[in-house]
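Q: Please design a sequence for this.
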């Protein structure tokens, strides 16, 4: 038996007036997904436990059967693991976004314009992060380049208890109420203030502004955590597994669970990613004998954060045509039984521009069994099935029947 888990990050949404009160899932042309869903088990699931923040680390840990209440240590240490950084028990990892703040006011009066700096390229970001590390790095702290706007700070001797605001939750808002404050927040605020002029005047940002792009003129620290550890996935499920994602967080979950993590050239974490490359990597993993392949696609989530309705629809359509269809056709060609689970990890509604706690639709297709599915796989049709899992950690058991 082969298993494919395909996560459309942030795909679930709310009805949008300009779409005739339909969601991007309802509007998107996704014939292959809908075909599978017509024969699949369909329902809804809550991947994020009550009382926890609806972040991708929490939700994807649950999908892979790891209870977030036990294993979630923040997304930053998982990202550090994916970057092959050797964390010590006394270090804390911080997510370090390169963000765009408004420029004409004192720092505390600025507005959060863009949590992704116009989805800055990794090449440009690397130059900025290296300049920050050269100027501000020392024996206690170092900056490390990740992907696009998503980077890592390792800080020796710091606690992981400070509650930062997530930058994508304050888009268009004044940052003053959300800046690190008090005695505990003072070191982080000091670092952000020191980083601002370095980034603002950097040649990379001057060139971006000259080309009409938003500058990555500030860092934003959040989601601290200590070194993580997860039980071995193969020992837990008896399945040799591969993770395919452009996002360091998802790679880090796989690496910590001793799963293979495959890098795909041109995979960006936004709508303009290498869909064909991800499909080819999944097919190759199955061809090499892997029994479970977990493919994560970030595009719908980024479009939700950026309130890009048409791009969110487009990303759903491209995943259907360029990933789900060819991988499923490969599995069918082998004349061996297989199961496919498709779901978002959490919603990222255009209206909110951030993650929400709502249950998400899921479907499980079994090549050996036909279920009474739905004609169109959407938030509403899944909810109408009245099959609800209150805990996402049950999904792996449902998929594997183990």
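A: Design:
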């Amino acid at each position: 038996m082969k298993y494919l888990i395909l996560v459309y990050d942030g795909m679930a949404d709310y009805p949008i007036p300009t779409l005739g009160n339909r969601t991007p899932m309802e509007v998107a042309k996704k014939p292959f997904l809908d075909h599978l869903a017509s024969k699949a088990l369909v329902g809804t699931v809550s991947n994020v436990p009550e009382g926890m923040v609806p972040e991708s680390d929490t939700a994807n840990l649950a999908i892979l059967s790891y209870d977030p209440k036990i294993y979630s240590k923040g997304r930053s240490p998982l990202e550090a693991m994916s970057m092959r950084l050797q964390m010590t028990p006394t270090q804390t990892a911080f997510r370090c976004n390169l963000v765009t703040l408004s420029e004409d006011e004192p720092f505390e009066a600025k507005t959060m314009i863009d949590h992704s700096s116009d989805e800055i390229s990794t090449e440009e970001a690397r130059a900025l992060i290296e300049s920050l590390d050269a100027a501000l790095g020392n024996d206690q702290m170092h900056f490390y380049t990740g992907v696009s706007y998503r980077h890592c700070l390792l800080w020796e001797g710091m606690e992981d208890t400070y509650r930062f605001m997530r930058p994508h939750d304050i888009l268009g808002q004044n940052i003053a109420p959300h800046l690190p404050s008090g005695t505990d927040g003072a070191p982080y605020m000091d670092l952000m203030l020191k980083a601002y002029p370095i980034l603002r005047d950097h040649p990379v940002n001057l060139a971006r502004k000259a080309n009409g792009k938003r500058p990555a003129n500030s860092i934003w620290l959040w989601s601290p955590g200590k070194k993580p550890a997860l039980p071995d996935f193969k020992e837990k499920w008896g399945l040799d597994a591969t993770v395919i994602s452009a996002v360091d967080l998802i790679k880090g979950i796989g690496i910590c669970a001793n799963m293979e993590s495959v890098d795909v050239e041109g995979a960006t974490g936004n709508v303009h990613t290498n869909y064909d490359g991800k499909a080819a990597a999944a097919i190759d993993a199955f061809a090499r004998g892997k029994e479970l392949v977990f493919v994560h696609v970030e595009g719908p989530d980024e479009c939700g954060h950026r309130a890009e309705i048409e791009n969110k629809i487009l990303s759903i359509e491209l995943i259907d045509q360029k990933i789900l269809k060819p991988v499923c056709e490969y599995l069918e060609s082998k004349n061996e039984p297989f199961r496919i689970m498709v779901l978002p990890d959490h919603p990222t509604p255009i209206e909110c521009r951030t993650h929400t706690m709502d249950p998400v639709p899921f479907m499980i297709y079994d090549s050996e069994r036909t279920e009474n599915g739905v004609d169109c796989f959407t938030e509403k049709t899944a909810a109408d099935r009245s099959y609800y899992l209150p805990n996402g950690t049950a999904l792996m058991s449902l998929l594997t029947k183990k």
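Q: Thanks. Anything notable?
A: The chain has a mean pLDDT of 96. The two ends are 12 Å apart (CA to CA).
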